Every structure is written in structure tokens, then in C-alpha cells.
């Protein structure tokens, strides 16, 4: 197990733009603010979404397109580094018009209808993602 | 994009009363403690729930009644202000007796069986909700 | 309602081992670090999972076995004490290969494929779980 200890950094609350891409907007913000490590939360709604699900045997993600409108019930994850740049790892839970829930790994393709985020920066050891041979994922090594 | 920076405020952990209304209890607490900005998390179980789903075309919420018992798998959101008073924006994920997940925007109607909350106050710029013409929602402007 | 106020404690970010048990690994970490009160978040993926759903009438949990692979969309909860030792209360949301979401109360039986956690310690009043007669659950009393 890897266990790092951190001190409190900056904290941000804000609103994503209508029509923006959830993942790209947050990634852009994280890089602009130069947040190396942190945690993220988002709630809101989107017009449509694409989530990725990992095939643990084949070691590839496949995308699932979810037609909207959808509520963003939960979207949580973390900020660390990959190739020396801030990277975002987010998982999302969405619901359709009947309330049924779906979700996966957040990739490009979630079009924001309304989005409210909370970002908490953590100061301490750098967490750098590298390809892990066992899982095929980019994990902290 | 709106991006505000905050400093750490008070932090609360506690238990909601059996039979109380999830949304009204938390809103009442937030107003009593005069928390202007913050984030909220809840887990627990409820006897029944009503969640709201936004119709992005018609710009109205419709309610979905979920018969219980239900586990509260996740309930996250934020505190900001509306008409000068603390307001709560929460989204919830619930599961039925088979583990299937459902959810939406939290409104009055979720009857607590057991509920454990975490509230983190943030000190900084006031976030005030106002009607947004594009979406029809009360958003930070 | 029980409402306690806390001060910020230590914060940890880390990675769970491949093949480890989600609940037992985190519980072991929490006890090793002697975290009395706090909040926890995890995202990742698992090979399979067992979640518990509470039967509010019969006052017993029943387990639902979820065959993997599954994404861990959200896993949030808290740390308090039971019988004088740190205890973990976590709820999880998972998705299958189609993105459909399921979840429940986390017990032993969720086999980690990849897991990234955030733990935030809170310093203040001890929260001790004791059997609550009304619900049959171990709640803060």
C-alpha cells in the first residue's frame, strides 16, 4: 500500500460553463492553478455523457455513450501528475429521467448543462502516475 | 467559469434524527450554524425518498418517488446563498434491496432511517444563486 | 440531532494493493494510523464485490454479491469508534461493463483491482457507536 501524508492547500469552489466539457474544463483549471495533488467533487447536470469502463482482462477501456439529459449525482476523484503535468482522475454517477443510475471513469465527452465543483489542494509528496504492468493502468508507483 | 478561492472554516460531523427529513434537517442545521459556503456529505439509509430530475428542455423539475427501504450510497453537494439565506444543493445516490442504484436532486421527502453527515465550512467570497436564463436554474452568477 | 465540531487533522492519499480487500485494507490503515474520527473517499475498480443492504423491518443486513469486473464510482464514509477501536463506515457505488450502477454498505468481500483513497482526520469529540434500539444499527449515541 502507498500512503502519503499531506497538509492543507488552497480550496476552490466554482461553476463550470454551460456547454463546456466536464473533464477538459476541470483539467484546464487544475493546470492553470498548478495544483499538483488534490481531491475534486462535482455535482450538476449534463446534456450527454461518455464514460469509460475498464476491461480488466483485455486491459483496455471501452466507452459507453449515455444520452442525456442526465443529472450528475456524484463525481469524485483526485489530482496527481503524469509525465510531469497535473492529471485528473474522476469517476462519475449519473441518473436518467427515471432516476436510474449509471456511471464510469470520466473521459472527454460529458457536456455540461450546469456544474458546481469543489477542489481541495493537498501539499506534500508528489504522486506520479506510471504504467502498472499488473493492471495496465497508470497508477501511483 | 467562476472560480473562487476559500480558506478552511468549521467542520461538523453528526447524526440526523430517525424519521426526520434529510433535506429539511440539514438546511435547518446549516441556517442555525450560519454556514454561508461549504460542502456536505451524507451516508445512511432512508425509509423512502423523493428525488427531482431536471427537464432541460421544459426547464422544470419533475419528482420521482422511490419507495424504501433504501441505502443512501452517496449524498454530496454544497452550501451557498439564495435571497440572502444559506441554501443547500445536494444530489443523492440510493440503492434498493437488490442493490440497484437510483438518484437525483434532493428535495423534501427523503425520510431518514439513519443518516451521518460531514459539513465543511469554507470562508471567502459569497456565492449567491440567481435565476440563470439559459438553464432556468438558480446558479452562481 | 447530534452535531459535533472538529478541527483539521492529518490528511492521507494513497493506493490500495492489487488483490487486497477494500474494507479490511482501509480498516487496517485507519487502526495503524490511529485515526479516531475522519472521512474517507475511494475511487478505483474491483474484481468483484459484496455489498450489504439493511432490512429495516427485520433489522438485519443481507449481502448482495456483485460479479466483476466493476468500476468503483464512489465510496464515501466516515471513521469513528466502536468498542474503543477505530471503525469504518463506508457506502459504495459500482458500475458493471454496461455502466449500470449498483451499491450498498461496504463489508468484507470487495477485491481491489485498483484503488485510490483520500482520508481526512478530524480532531475533536469522540464518536462512539452503540447499538440503537430503534434501528438495530450501531449508531453514534
From TrEMBL, chains A, B, C:
<dbReference type="Pfam" id="PF03479">
    <property type="entry name" value="PCC"/>
</dbReference>
<protein>
    <recommendedName>
        <fullName>PPC domain-containing protein</fullName>
    </recommendedName>
</protein>
<dbReference type="InterPro" id="IPR025707">
    <property type="entry name" value="DNA_bp_PD1"/>
</dbReference>
<feature type="domain" description="PPC">
    <location>
        <begin position="6"/>
        <end position="141"/>
    </location>
</feature>
<dbReference type="InterPro" id="IPR005175">
    <property type="entry name" value="PPC_dom"/>
</dbReference>
Amino acid at each position: 500500500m502507498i500512503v502519503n501524508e499531506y497538509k492543507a492547500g488552497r480550496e476552490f469552489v466554482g461553476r463550470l460553463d454551460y456547454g463546456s466539457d466536464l473533464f477538459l474544463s476541470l483539467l484546464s483549471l487544475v493546470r492553470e492553478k498548478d495544483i499538483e495533488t488534490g481531491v475534486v467533487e462535482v455535482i450538476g447536470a449534463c446534456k450527454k455523457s461518455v464514460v469509460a469502463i475498464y476491461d480488466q482482462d483485455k486491459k483496455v477501456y471501452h466507452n459507453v455513450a449515455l444520452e442525456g439529459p442526465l443529472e450528475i449525482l456524484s463525481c469524485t476523484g483526485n489530482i496527481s501528475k503524469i509525465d510531469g503535468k497535473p492529471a485528473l482522475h474522476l469517476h462519475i454517477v449519473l441518473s436518467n429521467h427515471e432516476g436510474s443510475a449509471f456511471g464510469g471513469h470520466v473521459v472527454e465527452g460529458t457536456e455540461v448543462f450546469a456544474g458546481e465543483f469543489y477542489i481541495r489542494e493537498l501539499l506534500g509528496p508528489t504522486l506520479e502516475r506510471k504504467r502498472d504492468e499488473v493492471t495496465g493502468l497508470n497508477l501511483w508507483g
